[in-house]
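Protocol step 4 of 6: structure prediction from sequence.
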Amino acid sequence: YSPNSSWDAAYERELQTFQDIGDAGEIWFGEESMVRIITWLEKHKVPLDSSVLDIGTGNGVLLVELAKSGYVNLTGIDYSPSAIQLSEKVREKEGMPNIKLKVEDFLAPSAELSGFDVCIDKGTFDAISLNPSDAAGKRKLYVGSLCRVLKPEGFFLITSCNWTKEELLNEFREGFEILEELPTPKFCFGGRIGNSVTALVFQRK
């Protein structure tokens, strides 16, 4: 799909801000979403040399946190060149030269994007789902790409604010089984308690 100019504009602003004050911009779903992901990987003793792909890395802050936790085989992709420029600057500032960063459209991934042990998505599937032209088709492409880049038995950790657990189970039923739902903050609206964020761990069959 054609790069969405509003995402590019947002990352260009964050790039400018980073250059001005050294602030990497906002963390999608906040700090706790990164802690939740890293806690799960550590609890399940996912080896530190596992290959990890951050799908839609944005400013790359999750990769930096993973590197600080000891993970050494990290790749981030984003289809926005401005996002990759920003994450490169963040990587340099943090002194993390071994984080690999690439401009990639996940719906049409290049051949070398394959064989990952872990794939992580915070908000990219959400963004694809909001695409005005053929969102359902784009979601299918996404699932197909995930099957291509993630090894059998590999883990997929997804954080979403658009989809319920049941909807995500349905979207990823081809080729994936759910391992765990991760706890996320609850919110109360009109007396009903709901989750504003869903975080699931799938394993590729």
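Step 5 (inspection) to follow. The mean pLDDT is 88.
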